[in-house]
Specification:
The chain is mostly helical. It has one domain. The protein has 3 helices and no strands. The chain is elongated and about 70 Å long.
Length: 95
């Protein structure tokens, strides 16, 4: 019951696998994703979803602000987010 794959099928599968490798390299290098903090399936899913959301937000931020690279945009995004959070906390305290 062995299935024979064509050269095109093998190339397509490898291309998909390579895209996954490139994405993991991106999140390791640019989002400080060095290891999984959880070993159970639900924990891994949560971490992956959070990482995907973070990467999408960072890419959108870069595009809106016409920034290159990831180091500076990541720092600027974190700083702006921190300021917004602090402003929100202060606003809620003074209600």
């Amino acid at each position: 019951m062995s299935k024979t794959l064509s050269a095109k099928d093998v190339a397509d599968i490898y291309k998909q696998r390579w895209e996954i490798e490139v994405f993991f390299r991106f999140i390791k290098q640019n989002l400080n994703f060095s290891h999984l903090l959880s070993r159970n399936i639900n924990g891994v899913k949560v971490i992956m979803y959070m990482t995907l959301i973070t990467s999408i937000l960072l890419i959108v931020y870069k595009k809106i602000n016409e920034l290159k690279g990831y180091k500076i945009p990541k720092l600027k995004f974190a700083q702006e987010l921190e300021v917004l959070i602090i402003k929100d906390i202060v606003r809620k305290m003074w209600r």
